[in-house]
Amino acid sequence: MKKLLIAGVLATALAFTISASAALVPGVYDPGKTGCVEATFIKKTKTLHLEKNCPTATNASAGAEVTGVSGQTFQSASFTLASATQCQGGSPRFNVDTTTGFFFLGCNNVTPTTNADGTVTYTFTAATLAAAGQQVPTPTGTIESVSVLIDVQGTADLTKVMVNGKLQKLAPGTADLARSCKKGGWKSFSSPAFKNQGQCVKYVVHGRNAAK
Known about the structure:
The chain is mainly beta. Helix content is 9%, strand content 34%. It has helices at 126-131, 197-205, 208-211; strands at 23-29, 37-42, 47-52, 61-67, 77-81, 93-98, 101-106, 113-114, 120-124, 143-150, 154-163, 166-167, 169-170. The protein is globular, with a radius of gyration of 16 Å.
């Protein structure tokens, strides 16, 4: 993934001074160079806009990496969507990579809260996941990386992205949504274990089934 599409009028957003402990780095995973995925940050509304303008089966995703959370234990995560219709199956979702495995927290794995302006907030904690029937495990272990992404056809407009109680703001750079699998990283995983880098990337970037 080497492609990051940010609208020219928003380029100045990259100049923000951001706390390293609470930052979003937008990016896309598009190994086929289809150009069908886009991750942009709308400065005026502080919105992370994600698009996938191709069939869900296409090997491409759009999202953002959450920096500054490595070494923490998972307590909570949340994001607000412009409308409930933007929740498509397990997407958008948080991918939480910890010392004990990968955890996929999809928008359909918790009961959302509808806000007065029509937006909907999805909050992931041990309690909310349990209340929704514990469709997916609650993250355990020590966090190594966290990302938020979509990998189904459609769009998602996310605001108020929070991890462990901290609001995540835009940071400069280009995220690599499959970074943890590269340069031999796939060999370090045991829960689950992977046979090769491609298998690891597929699991990390396209965790739809796990999130469902």
